[in-house]
Amino acid sequence: MTISSTGELPLTNEHDIVLGRQSVRRMAQQQGFSLVDQTKMVTAASELARNTVIYGGGGVLKWALLSEGIKRGVRLTFEDQGPGIANMELALTDGWTSGQGLGLGLTGTRRLVNEFEIESTVGVGTRVVITRWK
Amino acid sequence: MDRIPILRMGEFLLVTIQVDMHDQLAMQLQDDLTRAIDKKGAKGVLIDISALEMVDSFIGRMIADISGMARILDARTVLVGMQPAVAITLVELGLSLPGVATALNVERGMVLLRRLLAESSGDDHFINR
């Protein structure tokens, strides 16, 4: 697998969520994603960016454009130094919500991407990595 | 602060969302729209999202909430113009917008809205008897 370019975007407020999803749209277009694949990746990014801003107290979005043979992909890493997730099993249950959401954030997002990894330590922070291939 | 305009068309309100909304703007729309229904005595609300390239769970919930709030204020809501890619993504995300009436475009949305209103006034008649 080759990483052709990388970068980082701040996620500190609501406007960063909007800017973040617009950037992800451009990345997905650049990688030749279909409109449906673009929309899935942008929606997944929007869900996770909101988690980072609201529950994580802000953080960063690190992105990477990938290629493997003729496959092209986008990898996004959302990192915060927030309170962390105490009960991961519960957080990954459909319909469970800690706040004002619908409880679709993590489980719904997982369905929109090809690869999904989450690491969280209470008091340290949360890191979610998603990848979608064309 | 920027706002999404709410247009009045007879007894209906028309909202066309043409920008990538940040969360506060979506909440503001919910507020403005319920206020407009109350103030203008609107019976129907048409929300056109044909320009929206993405609907996530937050915006989806906002739309479902508007529909529910409008119903309590005796108005019906029809959501129109959802792009196919958005519909596919929403359902995969787990959000099928139960209870929200939808139509393909504004024209069909108006027809549906009139029908919903005719049906509900029929209900009233039945209850009054």
Question: How would you characterize the overall build of this protein?
Answer:
- The complex is a heterodimer of chains A (134) and B (129).
- Chain A is of the alpha+beta class.
- Chain A has one domain (2-133): Heat Shock Protein 90 (2-Layer Sandwich), CATH 3.30.565.10.
- Helix content of chain A is 37%, strand content 34%.
- Chain A has a five-stranded antiparallel sheet, with helices on one face.
- In chain A, a hairpin with a 2-residue loop joins strand 2 and strand 3 (71-80).
- Chain A starts with a strand and ends with a strand.
- In chain A, 38% of the residues are buried.
- The mean pLDDT of chain A is 92.
- By secondary structure, chain B is an alpha/beta fold.
- Chain B has one domain (6-128): STAS domain (Transcription Regulator spoIIAA), CATH 3.30.750.24.
- Chain B contains four helices and five strands.
- Chain B has helices at 23-40, 57-72, 84-93, 106-128; strands at residues 6-9, 12-16, 44-48, 76-80, 101-103.
- In chain B, helix 3 (84-93) links the parallel strand 4 (76-80) and strand 5 (101-103).
- Chain B is globular.
- The relative contact order of chain B is 0.15.
- Chain A binds chain B through residues 14-15, 17-18, 21-22, 25, 35-36, 38-40, 42-43, 46-47, 50, 94, 101-102, 104-105, 107-109, 111-112, and chain B through 20-24, 53-58, 60-61, 83-86, 88-90, 92-95.
Major interchain interface with per-chain residue totals = A-B, 27 and 24 residues
Structural class of chain A comes to alpha+beta
Number of helices of chain B: 4
Order of helices and strands of chain B: EEHEHEHEH
What count of domains describes the coordinates of chain B?
1
Count of beta strands of chain A: 5
Please tell me the CATH architecture of chain B by its name.
2-Layer Sandwich
Strand order of the largest sheet of chain B: 1-2-3-4-5
* Distance N to C terminus of chain A: 14 Å
* Oligomeric description of these chains: heterodimer
